[in-house]
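Hypothesis: this fold can be encoded by more than one sequence.
Test: take the structure tokens below, design a sequence, compare later.
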């Protein structure tokens, strides 16, 4: 067993997650070490997040350079200190507690992958901002702070190799980080390990390797996308290159290393032209605020304090969420209500429940403490359309025909453009064309998981639906009606997809052909329905017509 395998076997997952201890595969570590040792002769090396010292162990095989190293976790430090190579000055200290002035001509690191809510960002971020003149916000992840501090400590002619999650390349908080990288004039190469392969055995994350070098003069940046670790061997011959001055920190950098899906389509506009996307309702304490019908009865909560709500994504599996679907959830005693005590604060049952929450200190949690009163729910209208937050198979849009509220399991879509009928808008959104284009603005995680924040969708591109003629809009609505009436989503969506694909790639008008296909579908559906009526009760027909 390797040193890392022994540590994993003897250390709880909770502890490793607390300190974000995910170990670098040996092949990647060798690649990074080989790169930092090239170029100018090295005299002083830094490993800011030592862990078990895989980088220092590899470096010690190829050089006798002195290495300064930092490790904050006492437990892993005890394992690391006994196995450290000669020449490693290993300190059980926080890297951010050391000075910023010491310079190194070789820095290699796999920093802790902690998100903003998992570390004391109120301490670290102001420190980084004051030294670098950056404007990093409170959502900045810890690994990028490590990166920026290390770049500041890079000696002239020195080289740096960092392996970190690639999400900052395509996130809002990453804008200022990318701006700092551009201004540092050190960024040489970004190697993105595609999300189809997880670089770490025990971490669901995408990864990228950043290679930086402190040098004078204008710089260019190379981008490589590799599908597996073996692909690292080709990244210095297979890449795209941009002048540093060409890089825009405000856009998602995936456009620099991936050909976007949107380039296949004509006449694209931001989705914000047609709708506004915002997050769902955040309660701050779902266990307290969500109610099943039986729970409402147990606590004798009046109806005016219960907002109808979809609380879990699994409870809305279909494209259309109707009053009938909501009634089924009620009958199954699912969580279908949100408690809003502000609508009847003098009711005795409501007061008792509020007091129970205060006894459990629900009122002191992060979100509830910022509300007045704490037991009030956000005031916003139900969204006509819901959209999934996470997905492995593309975006999922749901028509909220029940007119109920939703938690953060979905984002809210509020149509804005009165030129486009909501049925036309929704019919487009459920096509693969829409999902394909939106994917350009997604955030990618491990194992094919994608995420969309509200602004990712607001800024995402869609086809310009205002260019549809009256006849084309009528056709789209006819197909939309066909899908609803027959429940034949698969065939109906394919017809819509073919229409939008042809319309916004070639511009050819083939409405007669598409109408003929629609009529054929209607005729087929009718004949099948008629046959089923002969064989079974009418009440079961709709369930059986899922073809």
């Amino acid at each position: 067993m390797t040193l890392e395998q022994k540590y994993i076997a003897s250390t709880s997952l909770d502890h490793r997650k607390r300190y974000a201890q995910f170990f670098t595969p040996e092949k990647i570590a060798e690649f990074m070490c080989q790169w930092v040792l090239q170029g100018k002769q090295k005299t002083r090396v830094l490993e800011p997040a030592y862990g078990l010292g895989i980088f220092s162990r590899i470096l010690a095989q190829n050089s006798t350079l002195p290495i300064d190293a930092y490790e904050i976790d006492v437990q892993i430090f005890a394992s690391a200190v006994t196995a450290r190579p000669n020449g490693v000055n290993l300190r059980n200290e926080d890297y951010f507690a050391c000075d910023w002035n010491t310079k190194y001509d070789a820095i290699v690191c796999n920093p802790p992958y902690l998100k903003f809510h998992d570390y004391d960002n109120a301490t670290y971020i102001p420190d980084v901002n004051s030294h670098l003149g950056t404007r990093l916000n409170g959502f900045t992840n810890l690994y990028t702070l490590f990166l920026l501090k290390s770049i500041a400590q890079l000696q002239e002619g020195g080289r740096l190799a960092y392996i970190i999650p690639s999400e900052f390349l395509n996130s809002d908080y990453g804008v200022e980080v990318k701006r700092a990288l551009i201004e540092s004039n050190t960024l040489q190469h970004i190697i993105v390990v595609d999300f189809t392969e997880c670089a770490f055995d025990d971490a669901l994350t995408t990864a990228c390797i950043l290679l930086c070098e402190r040098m004078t003069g204008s710089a260019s940046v190379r981008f490589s996308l590799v599908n597996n670790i073996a692909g690292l061997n080709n990244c210095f011959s297979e890449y795209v290159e941009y002048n540093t001055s060409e890089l825009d920190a405000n856009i998602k950098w995936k456009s620099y290393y991936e050909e976007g899906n949107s380039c296949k389509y004509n006449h694209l506009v931001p989705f914000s032209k047609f709708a506004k996307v915002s997050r769902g309702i955040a309660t701050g304490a779902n266990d307290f605020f969500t109610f099943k019908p039986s729970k409402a009865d147990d606590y004798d909560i009046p109806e005016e304090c219960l907002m109808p709500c979809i609380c879990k994504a699994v409870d809305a599996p279909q494209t259309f969420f109707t009053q009938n679907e909501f009634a089924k959830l009620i009958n199954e005693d699912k969580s279908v209500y949100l408690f809003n005590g502000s609508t009847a604060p003098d009711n005795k049952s409501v007061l008792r429940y509020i007091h129970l929450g205060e006894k459990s200190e629900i009122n002191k949690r992060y979100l509830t403490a910022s509300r007045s009163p704490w037991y009030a729910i956000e005031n916003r209208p139900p969204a006509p359309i819901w959209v999934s937050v996470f997905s492995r198979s593309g975006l999922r849009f749901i028509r909220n025909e029940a007119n109920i509220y939703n938690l953060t399991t979905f984002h809210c879509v509020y149509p804005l453009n009165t030129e486009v009928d909501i049925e036309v808008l929704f019919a487009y959104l459920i096509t693969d064309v829409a999902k394909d284009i939106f994917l350009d603005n997604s955030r990618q995680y491990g194992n094919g998981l994608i995420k969309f924040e509200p602004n990712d969708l607001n800024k995402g591109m869609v086809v310009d639906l205002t260019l549809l003629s009256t006849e084309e809009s009528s056709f789209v609505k006819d197909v939309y009606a066909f899908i609803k009436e027959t429940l034949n989503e698969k065939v109906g969506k394919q017809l819509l997809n073919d229409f939008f694909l042809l319309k916004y790639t070639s511009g050819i008008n083939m409405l007669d052909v598409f109408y003929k296909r629609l009529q054929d579908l209607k005729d087929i559906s009718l004949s099948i329905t008629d046959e089923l009526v002969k064989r079974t009760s009418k009440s079961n027909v709709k369930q059986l017509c899922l073809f």
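The chain has two domains: 3-258, 277-512. The longest strand covers residues 154-164.
Hypothesis status: open.
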